[in-house]
Amino acid sequence: MTRVWKWNRPVTVREVLEDLQQERSIAYTTVMTVLDNLHQKGWVRREAEGRAYRYEAVSTRAAYAAALMNDAWSQSDNPAAALVAFFGMMSDEQRQALRDAVRIVQGPEETREAPEGRPEAAPRPARQQEAAEAPQEQNPGSAEDGDGR
Fold first, then answer.
1. Three-state secondary-structure class, residue 91
2. Which of 46, 51, 105, 130 is deepest in the core (most CB within 10 A)?
3. Dist CA 20 CA 140 (whole Å)
4. Which tens digit of pLDDT belongs to each residue from 24-77?
5. Could you give the CA distance from residue 12 to residue 36 in angstroms, rounded to a whole number?
6. Among candidate residues 100, 105, 103, 99, the one with its CA nearest the CA of residue 129
7. Whole-model pTM above 0.85?
8. What is the DSSP string of 13-73?
């Protein structure tokens, strides 16, 4: 998947093979099998081109990562504790990225007074454009192994 996402265009088995062979020895049939498996799992679509196929990612790397995080979080028996533990593992840069993402999803902050006298964010809009751009057909299973396939 890393190669398909990197090029951001339909790719052939031969193109992926040649790129991977710059790093290590790998067989054509191995790359073909992996791309076929990704197609069967719904992570790539393919279109016939002569006797070969061109493979294209169904979703972005960001949507894939979001699906993995959502799947892991939904399996927790204590989602709040899981989030606290996850946030505790984050770097300062990652926490800032999280704050930025929350601001994007919430939209302009129109504050009102909460009952305790603290400012509270206004109710969040139904769906922001950034979230709507992520494909809805997500498969949270891992399609990438340690070799970046």
1. coil
2. 46
3. 25
4. 999 999 999 999 999 999 999 999 999 999 999 999 999 989 988 899 888 999
5. 11
6. 105
7. no
8. HHHHHHHHTTTS---HHHHHHHHHHHHHTTSEEEEEETTEEEEEESS-HHHHHHHHHHHHH
